[in-house]
Specification:
Blueprint (H helix, E strand, L loop, with lengths): L8 E6 L8 E6 L2 E5 L4 E2 L7 E4 L2 H5 L4 E5 L5 H4 L2 H8 L3 E3 L1 H12 L9 E3 L5 E4 L2 E7 L8 E7 L2 E5 L17 H10 L3 E5 L12 H14 L5 E4 L5 H13 L3 E5 L1 H12 L23 E5 L9 H7 L12 E4 L8 H13 L3 E3 L14 H11 L3 E5 L3 H14 L3 E2 L6 E6 L2 E7 L4 E5 L2 E4 L3 H12 L1 E9 L2 E10 L7 H18 L10 H20 L4 E7 L1
Parallel strand pairs: 3-6, 6-7, 7-8, 12-13, 13-19, 14-16, 14-17, 15-16, 17-18, 19-20, 25-27
Antiparallel strand pairs: 1-2, 1-21, 2-3, 4-5, 5-23, 9-10, 10-11, 11-12, 21-22, 23-24, 25-26
């Protein structure tokens, strides 16, 4: 992107191919602001955490004026420790999100480097050619905000994650009056959350969930109850605490992320009237009828507390067939398999499982069709760009908007350069945006050589051989096979060893006198070893050959 961009443009760098990895750029007169910097979650082994590739951001680093964060969920802040060092700009966020980001950065030793600036509501932030205002919206984590982005070419409303809840039990409601003011003055484009476009009506309210959880806990008065939910949902944690209090139980939290959230919540001024939750080490010692456990793992995460309980590997909490396990959450698209697997394991242990299918114990933080139409009524945008979802979500959102009467609707793909004006929205270019996987402390391409090699190893195994050159001959000195033979196949392994030794003696004898050509020896040995394995096992493993004198 070398040409100077003078008009108002929008680039979704992540967030328009799947749910997660939210990262968006707004450009005017060649000045950039970024909205959100989120992580995604992948089901492939070894690629659990993914982030959008920042190559376009890095190319335009000097033009980026600021990063604005709509709220504190991982799919909106999770990539900051990995990507922010590549662009280095001020970060504006609400206080709770600031504390969440600061805690995350402290794990990467850059907590004191990133300029974190607390943004307040009803306060316009002037950054170059942009004026940005945080507008309160209801969501499942505190202090969530939409962004009203004013430019010389008009106002864009970036919704963030939101919903309509005019009577929240925790946090703020959506500021419909402020949104209406922007609508009255004119909104050239609404860039909007698409997560719940397949839900017709409003997806419950937390006050109803609070009552239903309390009733549920009272119903099973003799059983120990475990509730799993999103750790960042402070309203749900408070609901669990009140359910425990009403039924005469003690609340125990199980899982690192819940402990972190409790600490950050209190730093941020929340839970001030709630006593410290009990540590998980006390869980098994409590009378079952007096214990209510809240644990991580609602999405079937591999190393979560609930996963360890289901597998019988948790150090402090041991599941019994008298336990009741409540999934007070929705399944994020893409996590269905993981959730079903963990529920199957729990069922094998004889526990009773209760989900939102059985009763209303979860309220979504995202807008249904009715809520989307309500927002259209308030904002009256000239154009709509659906974001935050897979392609199925985005196209359904576009259909809803077009049926409502919004004439200018554009379904984006990650990397699209989209011109926004009074006349509508138009794709004018596309930049190939890749995906990077978190590998330890590094980022590596999802489809790069590293993962291709790992996939080959996982499919076909690896063979390491050591060949010894001595007195004009080459002999097999050592053979190691990984991921090929079972422990019971010692005879088969010995047969393979003998076949390889024989083939090496026959095939390499003619070049054994020219020991200086090590690469030739290695290449021939690799080919014959693969041939032996294809004949014997029907598969071609990766082969590593060492040649020593």
């Amino acid at each position: 992107m070398s040409d100077k961009i003078r008009e108002l443009n929008f680039i979704p760098i992540g967030g328009c191919s799947e749910i997660g990895m939210n990262l968006y750029a707004y450009i005017y007169d060649d000045q950039w602001i970024i909205v959100d910097m989120g992580m995604g979650f992948n089901g492939d082994f070894g690629r659990e955490l993914i982030v959008p590739s920042p190559q376009e951001l890095v190319k335009n680093k000097s033009k980026i004026k600021a990063l604005f964060i709509t709220h504190s969920h991982e799919d909106h802040i999770g990539a900051i420790p990995y990507l922010w060092p590549m662009i280095e700009c001020p970060v504006y966020a609400r206080p709770f999100a600031i504390e969440m980001i600061r805690d995350k950065l402290s794990q990467f030793d850059i907590g004191n480097i990133v300029p974190l600036i607390k943004a307040s509501l009803n306060n316009k932030i002037e950054i170059g050619n942009f004026v940005v205002e945080f507008v309160s919206v209801a969501h499942s984590t505190p202090e969530s905000a939409a962004l009203a982005i004013t430019t010389p070419d008009g106002v864009v409303l970036h919704s963030g994650d939101w919903r309509i809840d005019n009577d929240p039990v925790f946090g703020s409601k959506t500021d419909e009056e402020k949104l209406k003011q922007y609508g009255d003055n004119g909104v050239v484009a609404l860039v909007c959350d698409s997560t719940n476009v397949f839900k017709d009506e409003q997806c419950g309210a937390e006050k109803d969930v609070r009552k239903n959880l309390a009733d549920l806990v009272k119903k099973y008065k003799n059983n120990r109850i475990l509730i799993t939910c999103f750790a960042s949902n402070l309203a749900r944690l408070e609901s669990c605490y009140l359910a425990a209090k009403e039924s005469g139980r003690q609340l125990v939290i199980v899982g690192r992320s819940l402990k972190k959230i409790e600490r950050i919540a209190k730093i941020s001024g929340y839970f001030s009237e709630i006593p410290a939750f009990l540590d998980e080490k006390k869980a098994d010692s409590l009378d079952p009828s007096k214990a209510l456990l809240v644990c991580t793992g609602s999405q079937g995460e591999l190393n979560s507390a609930l996963s360890k309980m289901a597998n019988g590997t948790h150090k402090s909490v041991h599941i019994t067939q008298d336990d009741i396990i409540v999934f007070s959450s929705r399944v994020i698209p893409g996590n269905e398999k993981s959730v079903i697997e963990i529920q199957n394991l729990l069922a094998e242990r004889g526990v009773k499982i209760i989900t939102s299918i059985d009763c209303d114990i979860h309220a979504s933080g995202h807008p249904s069709k009715d809520e989307l139409r309500h927002l259209y009524d308030i904002v009256r945008p000239k154009s709509l760009i659906p974001i935050h979802g897979g392609k199925l979500h985005l196209y359904k959102h576009a259909e809803i908007a077009e049926e409502y009467g919004i004439k200018n609707v554009l379904v984006p793909s990650d990397g699209d350069l989209i011109k926004i004006s009074e006349d509508g929205v138009k794709k004018i270019d596309n930049f190939n945006i890749g995906t990077l996987a978190v590998d330890g402390t590094k980022l590596i391409p999802m489809n790069g050589i590293v993962y291709k090699q790992r996939e080959m190893l996982s499919i076909s195994g690896v063979v390491s051989v050591c060949l010894k050159c001595s007195k004009g001959s080459i002999k097999l000195q050592d053979l190691v096979c990984i991921g090929i033979f079972d422990e019971s196949e010692r005879t088969e392994l010995e047969d393979i060893r003998n076949d390889i030794a024989s083939e090496i003696k026959i095939s390499l004898d003619r070049i054994s006198k020219d020991k200086s050509d090590i690469n030739k020896i290695k290449n021939l040995a690799e080919k014959l070893i693969k041939t032996v394995f294809v004949d014997a096992r029907g598969k071609k493993p990766s082969v590593i050959v060492h040649v020593v004198d």
